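CO-FOLDING WORKSHEET

Operator: S.A.
Ligand of interest: fe (ii) ion
Run index: 194
Mode: holo prediction, single chain
Checklist:
[x] sequence pasted
[x] SMILES validated
[ ] output reviewed
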Amino acid sequence: MKTIYDLIHKKAKLYLDTRQNDIHTQISYNFAKRLLTYYPEADEHIVLPAILLHDVGWKMVPEDKQLDAFGPKLKDKDTQRFHELEGAKIATQVLISLGYNEEKTREISTIIDGHDTRLKALSLNDKLVKDADKLWRFTPTGINIDHSRFDIQRDFYLQWITPMIDAWFFAPEAKDMARESLCEAISEAATHRE
Ligand SMILES: [Fe+2]
Ligand SMILES: [Fe+2]
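OUTPUT RECEIVED:
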């Protein structure tokens, strides 16, 4: 039996085949589901579609322009902002095409429009989306992809990202998950050195 999230994901995937966003989205979606178990007062009908659709806007950015527009070497803030605005538009179209609740669609679009550049969270739903988005960066897969695409040696990258746990996350449970993922990434890094 397909859920509405399967249908949203299927449509989102048409836009996620760039910047490894298909892998990123799947991992962040799993974190969002885990975070939701701690916050029954959050709305999964907002959080889950928002995380599935948050990065669809990258599809509108030529691949040779993407790398300057995120990560520790961010230079091109206009393009970073552009992926949010395009993402909010595409997400709205996708949700309308599925007949999704209009009020929820508006909130999802507002969350996507600002998911990277807006440092303050607007709501608990927004917090959980922001946390789930960033959690993937601490996983062994996220570390592998990011250190090589940013051309930063793995150990330096691990040193850079470790203090970000306190800087980036809202929910204490997200900090715990980041620490747990980072431990896995660090022990995996040790095997790379052997
Ligand atoms: Fe993003
Ligand atoms: Fe993201």
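REVIEW:
The mean pLDDT is 97.
The domain at 4-193 is CATH 1.10.3210.10 (Hypothetical protein af1432).
[x] output reviewed
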